[in-house]
Design a protein that fits this description.
It is built from eight helices and six strands. The protein is α/β, with parallel strands linked by helices and 229 residues long. Strand 1, helix 3 and strand 2 (68-72) form a beta-alpha-beta unit.
Length: 229
């Protein structure tokens, strides 16, 4: 891996140019192009190792297995999620690193059961803040969001400026059918809870079976943990 590159600010004109270029590329070529336009040390890749995380991780494993993949360990994941992370890491030779909240802050949410009364605060403490600590040194953040997953995601482009970091969504224009066809064609393993009716999988307290993201934060208007807003 090369030395850590200095964090860059990408202009709106450059972002438009990137979107025009990447729109015409297939998925694997988008990943390859990323390493032509950005240094590996500028790139932050995160994965929740949830329902169909193997999709994006398989693509990256074919291009660059050295890429660090950050997993936010909230302390409230299903055992199946942790086992799925282990399975994919071994299968695709992934370079996974876990990040987590400060011990005393996480302990507060456990004793307080913050997720029950204030899920936004719980997500902020256990997901958003831990990533903020490392996010500042990267130019671009890769995520596997797809536009059909929620109203918010339906408005995204391949490259978007979000605060002080450029977001890269290589799968954003992939339909649900295309995703499922890719998974089937490459025999990718689903998260084990998918067979039990879970289609969007987060922490145990806030996840129930449901289609798409309807099983997250049940009976709550919340649809995003805050990482991607």
């Amino acid at each position: 891996m090369s030395e850590i590159a200095e964090k860059r600010t990408i202009s709106e004109k450059e972002i438009q140019k990137l979107n025009k270029k990447y729109k015409t590329l297939n998925l694997i070529d988008r990943i390859k192009a990323l390493y032509e336009d950005f240094d590996e040390s500028e790139i932050m890749l995160t994965s929740s190792f949830a329902a169909t995380s193997a999709f994006l991780l398989k693509l990256f494993s074919e291009v660059n297995t050295d890429q660090i993949i950050y997993f936010i360990d909230t302390g409230y994941h299903f055992d199946e999620t942790l086992n799925y992370k282990k399975q994919l890491s071994e299968t695709y030779n992934l370079n996974v690193k876990s990040v987590k909240a400060l011990a005393h802050e996480h302990e507060f949410t456990t004793k307080d059961k913050t997720w029950s009364e204030n899920p936004d605060l719980c997500c902020s403490i256990n997901k958003v803040k831990p990533l903020e600590v490392i996010k500042n040194k990267y130019t671009i953040w890769v995520s596997g969001l797809m536009e059909w997953q929620s109203d918010h995601r339906n408005s995204l482009d391949i490259f978007e400026q979000r605060g002080d970091i450029l977001k890269f969504y290589p799968l954003v224009d992939v339909s649900k059918q295309q995703r499922d066809d890719f998974i089937k064609a490459h025999d990718l393993p689903f998260h084990p809870l998918v067979d039990k009716g879970y289609h969007s999988i987060g922490c145990q307290h806030c996840t129930v079976p449901g289609e798409d993201r309807n099983g997250r934060w049940n009976n709550n208007p919340k649809t995003e943990c805050g990482l991607h807003l």
